[in-house]
Amino acid sequence: MTLHLSQILLTDARTFITDPCDLKQLGISIDTQSGATYQFFKGSVPVTEVLVGSGSSVMATVAKDQLALGSNELSIQVATQNGCDSYVFAKAINYDYQVLNPVAITKDGLILKSSSADGNQWFKNGVVINGATGTQFEVQESAIYTVQVSKGGCTVSSEIDVDLTTDAIQVFPVPTEGKMNLILPSRINASLRSIFLYDMRGVSILEMQSNQTLSSNEIKTLDLSNLGPGVYLLQINADKVYAVKVIKK
Hints:
Layout: E1 2-5, E2 8-11, E3 15-17, E4 25-31, E5 36-42, E6 45-46, E7 51-52, E8 57-63, E9 70-80, E10 86-97, E11 105-108, E12 111-114, E13 120-124, E14 127-128, E15 136-138, E16 143-151, E17 154-162, E18 170-172, E19 179-183, H1 186-190, E20 194-198, E21 204-209, H2 212-216, E22 220-223, E23 230-237, E24 241-248
Antiparallel strand pairs: 1-2, 3-4, 4-8, 5-6, 5-7, 5-9, 9-10, 11-12, 12-15, 13-14, 13-16, 16-17, 18-19, 19-22, 20-21, 20-23, 23-24
């Protein structure tokens, strides 16, 4: 639409949202005319200052606390600089405001948990993990894990550096109701020969001989679901013999 007011040819200003994902404000770029002023309204309430046209683009900002969740229709009032003549162009901007809070990762054993209830996508060393879109992800090896949350065209992310190797033998969960995870320090894993599980009578009930697959897995999983409740002894034969107590519920 074009209006000829007070010797100024007023035209509907072209507007572009520049930073919809800013947590505090909405940025809007306006193609302006010299001799004209511009101001955005939500309904009858002004949401920006009056901007003076320069013949080029100028930037307007709308504080997010002035917007409602969901659809927000903003009109723009274009006026002559002396304020004598003006015209309101309705629905100049339609912005879908969705709150996207920062996301955090917590770790519980091998389970990584996102603080976001939805919109999650997990990555390992910067590579997307196919199908890993839930609030939780179980790690299988040392790596940098990232969760990215997308909502309303915006994204936030958080990462955690998971190092499963330590100077101590790790057995978890304790007690276990079925599967038990074993992580060995690098020096023990490099010299691993075999793993045995004994009951309290000294009877061998499980044996795992070292092979390439067993040695290469940072997390070695033992299935104890068929065993009765009680205390068992895990024997690890490597550069020397190590023994770890295991409790089965």
